[in-house]
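Course assignment 3, question 2. Fill in each field.
Student: A.L.
Task: Predict the tertiary structure for the chain below.
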Amino acid sequence: MGAASSLFAAGITYGIAERRWGVALVVAGAGLAAFLLTYMFTKRPTPSAPMPSIQVNPELNQQFNPQFNPTIQIGVPAPDHGAALAEQEKLQREERVLNFMRKVQEGSANQQRHITHLVESVASGTALNFNQAKETLDSLCLKGLLVRSTIEAEGDYVYWLRDAK
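Answer field:
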C-alpha cells in the first residue's frame, strides 16, 4: 500500500507542478488502481476461537515472601589511619628538608650569610619530587621556619632558613 499511495501522490504533485494533467492522471490512476487491488486481495484475519478458560490450582500457596531485608547499622566510624600516616610522612619530609638546608648552611664558607635554595635543588638534595619539595617548603614557610622571596624561576620562589644556626 505504501508504493500505491506514493504513486498517487506523485501523480497529483506532477500535475500541479508541471501543468501536464494527462501524464499526472495516468500516474495517479495507476497508484489508485494498485491501492484498490492491494485492498481487495489482502487476507483479512478470521475471528479467533473463544479464549480457553483459565483454571486456578487451589493447592497453590500465594503468600508474599519479601526478599529485601534492610538493616541500619549505627556506630562510631573507625579512626582514619590513612590521614595519620599522611601527616607522619609530611612531618618526615619537613624534617628531611630542614636537615638538608642546615647541612648546606653549615658546609658553606660564610656561615653568617643566608644560603638560598630553589625548589629544584631541595628536591634533588632530598630525593623528593618537585611537587613534594614545593609543598614541603611552603608548609615550612607557613610554620615560620623558612623565609621565601619571589623570583622568576620554576617554582616562583627562593627559600632560606629563618635563622642561620
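Instructor remarks: The longest strand covers residues 146-150. The chain is about 50% helix and 5% strand.
Grade: pending
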